Amino acid sequence: MPTIAKMLDWILDFLVVLALLAMTFVLVLQIVCRYILNNPLSFPMSFSLFLFVWMVWLGGATGIRDEGQIRMEFAERYLPESIKRFLIPTISLVCSGFMLVVIYVSIKVVEIQASATYDTLPFSRAYLFMVIPTVGGVMFLQYLRVLLRQVGKYFLSQRN
Fold first, then answer.
1. Per-residue confidence band for 84, with pLDDT thresholds at 50, 70 and 90
2. In this structure, are residues 95 and 143 in contact, taking their beta carbons and an 8 Å threshold?
3. Whole-angstrom distance, CA of residue 41 vs CA of residue 71
4. Which of 16, 32, 25, 17 has the alpha carbon at shortest distance from 48?
5. pTM of the model
């Protein structure tokens, strides 16, 4: 039976692929309409940017899951084990705390953007900015997963 974490991983991967495919489709549609049909559409640029932003944030969450985020690799390679075992989990803890700050601030941004609308899309700009608290929450959970994995690696495996 799949765990909740595995289901979350699958959903994230699926949404990244879906956003990429949708963005590609919209851009190809615009090329066809503009250059073949000589009738350009008004929405593709805004909508593809919307999809791109969501795709990048979702991809960031998958990167955190796989521990592919920017980090201090020199610490993992060159510092003594006694320093590594505290430093690396502490960095993940600080990053998860930073995500909480980002989420808190972004909620205010979403509220401000609720009244702003796109010229070419039938919805509020708040939907673009909702990516930050929504996927930011997922990123926070991913950092906690990484932290638990690191604690297991540096503390629990040492005692066995």
1. confident
2. yes
3. 42
4. 25
5. 0.87
